[in-house]
Amino acid sequence: TTILVLNGPNLGRLGSREPEVYGSQTLADIGADLASSVPDGVEIDLRQTDDEGELVGWLHEAVDRGTPVVLNPAAFTHYSYALRDAAAQLKTAGVPLVEVHLSNPHAREAFRHTSVISGVATGVIAGFGADSYRLAIDWLLRHP
Ligand code: DQA
């Protein structure tokens, strides 16, 4: 089994980006921890892009391959209808999508309180730092 772990804009800057909000681990650190925490035979395919179109394309790939997705849409969470429409196709296809956030957007600025993705996500995990990803993967592995 493969799980796609997709990350949106500025998440490639983790480690140095607002560490008081996002922690001091890089995305590569988080990916390595995730890869070492899953059972044998499970592959974590972790990707990051600052480009909306690339992220949309990766969701199409997940639809076509039936690959479950953990998605941190980053700032796209709050305004990308293109990403939402791509995520909706996963829902139609019955492919699970877990939306994750390192921080708890609801405890932050008002513009972060809206997610255009959540309405088509299977579920949302936010506020647990890198553990948000781990919790999402745990759930996916228990619901194959
Ligand atoms: C984030 C929260 C978003 O509001 C923000 O734009 C991000 C990261 C998080 O993981 O906490 O880039 O998705």
UniProtKB/TrEMBL annotation:
GO biological process terms on file: amino acid biosynthetic process; aromatic amino acid family biosynthetic process; chorismate biosynthetic process; quinate catabolic process
Domain of life, source organism: Bacteria
Protein name (Swiss-Prot/TrEMBL): 3-dehydroquinate dehydratase
SUPFAM superfamilies assigned to the protein according to its UniProt record, in alphabetical order: Type II 3-dehydroquinate dehydratase (SSF52304)
Family, similarity comment: Belongs to the type-II 3-dehydroquinase family.
EC number(s) recorded for this UniProt protein: 4.2.1.10
Catalytic activity: 3-dehydroquinate = 3-dehydroshikimate + H2O
Higher taxonomy: Bacteria, Bacillati, Actinomycetota, Actinomycetes, Micrococcales
Matches recorded under Gene3D superfamilies: Dehydroquinase, class II
Binding site for substrate: 72, 78, 85, 102-103, 112
Function summary: Catalyzes a trans-dehydration via an enolate intermediate.
InterPro entries assigned to the protein according to its UniProt record, in alphabetical order: DHquinase_II, DHquinase_II_CS, DHquinase_II_sf
UniProt signal peptide: none
Gene Ontology molecular function, alphabetical: 3-dehydroquinate dehydratase activity
Pfam families: DHquinase_II (PF01220)
Organism: Agromyces flavus
Coiled-coil residues: none
